[in-house]
Structure formats: structure tokens, C-alpha cells
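pasting for ref
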Amino acid sequence: MQQEVKKIGFKVSLIMAILMSFALSLVGNLTAQRPPEMPLAPIVIGFLASFAISFVISFAIGLLVPMPKVNAALGRVFKLQPRTPKANLVQSVVTNLIYTPLLTTMLVVFAYFVQIPDGHKPPFLPMYMHSMVICLVVAQVLIFVCVPLILKLVLPKGGPANNAQQK
């Protein structure tokens, strides 16, 4: 049973890492201010580099942070019934606060110090705060909507691993 729980955790971590990385990298690139004469190639390369960095960090967080245990603790503290909208909301907010600040910080630092040419750098703090707010909102929606769907996809119907998420 422990092996099955690890497989499920790995699958959820992998799928969420791909989704979060794609969404946050895309949002970051779409909201970036660039000179109008900037060619498309560096934009695409920047997106791919951001995606790769974000994926590695997000996947590592997913493997290192025991979200089923965190969610079970949240359920006990807030007296949440599993798989209810209220439980999903509380768990998604906490998940968002674990993942998004680290991912956004790394992506903004990477963009600012590696991708943006010196003559075109905006002030760091407004750029960072703007990105953080947008990414927290996008990630919250993504986590709130996608995690229950991913769990339905990877959890066996009525099997013992279905309850493992709560332990």
C-alpha cells in the first residue's frame, strides 16, 4: 500500500509541476514588458527556460512537501470534510502559499538578472510585486480547479489509496 501511495504522490507531483510551471511561465512571459523591436526567438527561449526552472523547483517541492499530511492536518485543525468545496479551498490556499512565492521569486529573479538586458530593466520591486500578485491569483485558480481533477484521475476508484490522501 505504501508503494501505491508513493506512485500516486509522484503522479500528482508530476502533473501539478507541469501545470504550474506552464501556467506561471506563460503568465510571466505574457505580462512582461519588452521593447517592441524584440524578436520572437528570445521570448520563446525565455519561456522554455522559465518553464524548465519552474518545473524542477515545482516537482522538487511536490516530492519534498508531504501535501497529503499537510492536507490531513488542515482537515483536523479546521474540521474539514474531505473533498468538499470548503476543504478544497483551504487546501488550495495553503498549497498556493507553499508553491507560488518560491516559484515566482525564482522566475522573477531569473528574468531580471538573466533575461532582461541592462538597458531595459524596470525597477525590481514593482516588477516582483506585480508578478507575485498575478501569479498568486492564477495559481490559486489552477490549484483549486485542477487538484481535485488530478486526484480523480490518479486515485483508484474505491481502492485503499483513495483514503491514503487523507493520512
